[in-house]
Amino acid sequence: MGVSEFLLLDGTPLRTVDPALLKATSFGHFSSLQVRDGRVDGLDLHYDRLDKSTRDVFRTPLPADRVRTELRAALEHAGAGDLSLRVQVFADTEVHLLTRVGPPIAPGTEPLRLLAVEHERAVPHLKHSGTFDLIYYGRQAQHAGYDDALFHSTAGEISEASIWNICFARGARIVFPSAPVLPGIRQQLLQRGLESFDVERVTDVSAYDAAYLTNSIDPALPVASITVGAKTITYGKHPESAERIAAAYATESAQPI
């Protein structure tokens, strides 16, 4: 008699998870959302990301209405309007949406100390399921006494942090790295709200007055320092850029699911 697929967790059979589901979700893409009172910052950008990525990876569109239906189902099942959601897209013979629901996550309050490491993400324009390298380098930085890793190319060009985009400030000017990165939703929102900004090749982090990390949780988390090799660049509070970033975000309203 043949053996059917099954899973063991620490030696105990795990009957509630389909092994096929685990295999399917190893190849796909996702978007993470923070929901407050049933609303999401940049929801239209999340829909656009999920559609474009599905077209890229699976050669088929993903209509916003279908994603909206899944998000509303998550709100209904949770019975709450404040949530963390992750919409994972994968496919076998058809495209599926797997929505992970959790409690809301508050933004960070303490500036982070970053360790610059040489690394370039595979297929950086996609928020894909292959996050091993991001977690690995982030943990390596933590083991070395830092808060997270900041990536740079072999040529020393700064790109992004493990789960954040990064931007820099020169006076009131906001500067985004020109290196290939994942175009984060918060980064797109910030750029949409700014009247003007710079995009340039960032190699010398000492050339800037401040740096900020952005992702779905943290709109603009200040960077305390960046260590590149034996040199550490520190940043203090910089009200001029902080106020400009806050004003840019204020031009956008959260959108109802």
TrEMBL record:
<keyword id="KW-0032">Aminotransferase</keyword>
<dbReference type="InterPro" id="IPR043131">
    <property type="entry name" value="BCAT-like_N"/>
</dbReference>
<dbReference type="GO" id="GO:0008483">
    <property type="term" value="F:transaminase activity"/>
</dbReference>
<protein>
    <submittedName>
        <fullName>Aminotransferase class IV family protein</fullName>
    </submittedName>
</protein>
<dbReference type="InterPro" id="IPR036038">
    <property type="entry name" value="Aminotransferase-like"/>
</dbReference>
<dbReference type="InterPro" id="IPR043132">
    <property type="entry name" value="BCAT-like_C"/>
</dbReference>
<dbReference type="InterPro" id="IPR001544">
    <property type="entry name" value="Aminotrans_IV"/>
</dbReference>
<dbReference type="Pfam" id="PF01063">
    <property type="entry name" value="Aminotran_4"/>
</dbReference>
<keyword id="KW-0808">Transferase</keyword>
